[in-house]
Amino acid sequence: MLFAIDGYAATSIGHIAEAAGLSKSAVLYHYSSKEALLEAIITPAVDGLEGVVASFARSADADPRHEFVEPFVDYLLANRLEMSIFVNQGQSLRGLPVIDRANGLVQRLGDAVSLGVVRIDDRIRFGMALGGAAYTVVAAINWTDNALPSAELEDADEVRAALVEIVTGLLVASRTSVAAH
């Protein structure tokens, strides 16, 4: 996905057509604009993010590993390229409806995470758990020796297990300190 690799602003319909082996008019036949193409590509990932946000709300009193963390990590790993756009370009792409929706969901997740969390160190811990996991997965695009960022991580199971363990540890530590206050 050129939007994730080169950036949305640097990617033209002509670049997309060339990479796909199509003419520019063929791409424009299916997508009226670059924005429409981005929306078609990103919408399924944003829909998935909406499910992740909903799962956090449901897991408030449950084991965070099974109710939230594992689905969150699986979401991140399954949507690495899309997350690269959210994480790296989300602020510069404000005004595009699909990006605004993604940014709103990220904000809702942040608000839900910090609900009832008074201490600043706990808020930072939550932010590092979720944001750090997202950034780590996005940065993993550069970890492979393969030229294509969509290439599978060589140790995907190991990366998944580590992310689940670390994010769970950070969330549980924070929940424990919230319960103690």
What do these coordinates show?
Helix content is 73%, strand content 0%. It is mostly helical. Helix 5 (64-78) packs across helix 9 (156-180) and helix 6 (80-89) crosses helix 8. Keywords: DNA-binding, Transcription, Transcription regulation. It comes from Amnibacterium flavum. This is TetR family transcriptional regulator. Residues 1-49 form the HTH tetR-type domain.
Topology (SSEs and partners):
Blueprint lengths: L1 H4 L7 H8 L3 H7 L3 H25 L5 H15 L1 H10 L7 H18 L5 H20 L16 H25 L1
Secondary structural class: mainly alpha
Which blocks of ≥5 consecutive residues have pLDDT under 50?
146-151
Domain unit count: 1
Number of strands: 0
Q: What features would you highlight for this structure?
A:
mainly alpha; elongated; 9 helices; 181 residues
Task: Kindly summarize this structure in a few lines.
With 181 residues, the chain is mainly alpha-helical. The protein is built from 9 helices and no strands.
